Amino acid sequence: MKFRIWFALSFISFFSYSQFKISGIVRDSTKVIEFANVLLIDKSNKIISGTITDEKGKFLLESPKGEFVLSISFLGYKKKIMY
Q1: Can you give the residue range of the structural domain that contains 73?
Q2: I need a labelling partner for 16 at 20 to 30 A (CA). Which of 9, 29, 30, 39 fits?
Q3: How high is the mean pLDDT of the chain?
Q4: Which segments of the chain have a pLDDT < 70?
Q5: Within a domain: residue 14?
Q6: Region at 13 (left for phi over 0; alpha for psi -120 to 50; beta for the rest)
Q7: Structure confidence by residue, pLDDT tens digits, 29-49
Q8: Rounded to whole angstroms, how far apart are CA atoms 83 and 78?
Q9: Which helix (H) or strand (E) holds 58?
Q10: Residue 1 included in any domain
């Protein structure tokens, strides 16, 4: 009986954790942009996930399945929105 309960719980957690990873590098024409804001926004302008880039301009976000907008901003730069 314990085996069946454990199997059912592991099966549920496997499907509830089905997320996608989005990664990239933020840069301008000459250099990487450190500590830029990267947001994942849904159609109703709700923030789904967010992070900042590291010192090499890299970021990693986790996202559920769906359609989202990626918004990248940094002080002194024009905000970039990717559909």
Answers
A1: 19-82
A2: 39
A3: 80
A4: 1-18
A5: no
A6: alpha
A7: 888 899 999 999 998 999 999
A8: 16
A9: strand 58-63
A10: no
- Residue 60 forms part of a structural domain: yes
Phi, psi dihedrals of residue 46, rounded to the nearest 5°: -90, 130
pLDDT of residue 64: 87
Domain count along the chain: 1
At which residue do the structure tokens 């199997």 appear?
A: 7
What one-letter code names the amino acid at 51? T
Both tokens of 57, joined, read 């301009």
**For the whole model, what pTM was predicted?**
0.73
Supply the CATH number for residue 63's domain.
2.60.40.10
| Other beta carbons within 10 Å of 45 | 8
Whole-number Å distance between alpha carbons of 53 and 68: 19
